[in-house]
Write a structure and sequence with these properties.
The chain is of the alpha/beta class. Helices cover 25% and strands 29% of the residues. The strands form 2 sheets. Strands 2-1-3-6-7 form a 5-stranded parallel β-sheet.
Length: 162
């Protein structure tokens, strides 16, 4: 399954939804993670807040390919996208294991294929390097076998990168 999380305007929804199985607009119409960890312990992979991100852990956990479309924010995801990622901590468990000689949380849904980040907006070379590192680390933490980062100079290039 291919899932796309994006922070673009609604005018892009048709283009994006035609290229994936699940689309999630990071539009800010949900609460930020409150750090209660109930998605880890009390209700595994299910957020206790009953809003549009209630099932985000299960959706992301089932995705073989996760594509994140985000505006650059100093080499980091936009605030709206970061909120979605924060709410997805339940894709792992509170237990730890070694993966690639490093300590990580045990995956609740097993391994995945591609963690892809499509970045738009003004970006420096240093911010590009930060994004590449961030995407690589996120991929390892969430059990993706590879990561890819694409930088767009203009959103008209978006359709060719999905």
């Amino acid at each position: 399954m291919k899932m796309i999380i994006h922070d673009l305007d609604r005018e892009y929804d048709d283009v994006i939804s035609a290229r994936c199985d699940v689309m999630l607009a990071a539009d800010g119409k949900y609460a930020p993670c409150r750090g209660c960890f109930q998605c880890w312990t009390r209700h595994p992979a299910e957020c206790s807040m009953k809003d549009k991100l209630h099932q985000v852990c299960r959706l992301m956990g089932q995705a073989d390919e996760l594509v994140i479309i985000t505006e650059n924010l100093y080499g980091e995801y936009s605030a709206a996208v970061k909120n979605v990622l924060d709410r997805s901590i339940g894709t792992s468990t509170p237990f730890s294991t070694y993966r690639g000689r490093q300590m990580h949380h045990t995956l609740r849904y097993g391994k995945h294929d591609l963690w892809k980040v499509i970045v738009y907006g003004d970006i420096t070379e240093q911010e590009k390097e930060t994004f590449r590192t961030l995407a690589g680390r996120n991929a390892v933490n969430d059990g993706f076998s590879r990561s890819e980062v694409v930088f767009l100079t203009d959103l008209t290039e978006l359709e060719g990168t999905l």
